[in-house]
Amino acid sequence: MQRKVKIAGVILLLLGIVIACRIGGEYLYDHINTEIETAGKTISDREKPVVVVDAGHGGGDPGKIGVNNAKEKDINLSIAVYLKKYLEKEEIQVIMTREDEERLADSQVGDLKARVRMINEHSPDLTVSIHQNSYHESSVHGAQVFYYTHSQESKKAAEIMQESIKTADKRGSRQAKANDTYYLLEKTKTPIIIMECGFLSNHEEAEKLVTEKYQKDVAKSISNGIAEYLESR
């Protein structure tokens, strides 16, 4: 009788071990799968390029006023919105400093500081600040890219962009230009360029810059330049 009890006990013990191993194995399998999926997602998210698109001015700060009375802030935002769409089609994560009429702070200084803070918090692969130019001589024209004098990566991005924008600005002959006084360029910790898309003081460019077609052409050229820069790193 005692022998039978012992055998039954051994059988129950072995059965318990088998069940425990099976449950533990399934848990371990699920846990490992979860870890792999989570790790894969983390790696995928980290490898996705991040670009900040900064539409200059806004709110009570119209920026330059064109010979056709166009406001720079409105053109900047339109081009920025088109640019965002083009970049997202290329699987590039886009962060906009503004997506509506308003700027980031009441004062100009406060607005610039808020933009710099936002850019530095996200540490993007590149920031492109969209602007329009103006000059006292109406004959002056052409898109031009500015970069921080002491940033080789920004210089590289600017030179690529200056070539890329020529697909939209057919008459363009300008070169990328260094600058060490623009607040945005100086205070941003990651590569950044300022894209002056054209001169609102030039009648021909001012008229083109308010059209949907040219805004899309400019945005597409900038998008192509960004993609080329990201691939070159």
TrEMBL record:
CDD domains linked to this entry: MurNAc-LAA
SMART domains found in the cross-reference section: Ami_3
Keywords: Hydrolase
Residues of the MurNAc-LAA domain: 116-227
Any Pfam family hit: Amidase_3
Keyword Cytoplasm set for record: no
Keyword Hydrolase (UniProt): yes
Highest taxon in the source lineage: Bacteria
Coiled-coil regions listed in the entry: none
PANTHER family: N-ACETYLMURAMOYL-L-ALANINE AMIDASE (PTHR30404), N-ACETYLMURAMOYL-L-ALANINE AMIDASE AMIC (PTHR30404:SF0)
Protein name, per record: N-acetylmuramoyl-L-alanine amidase
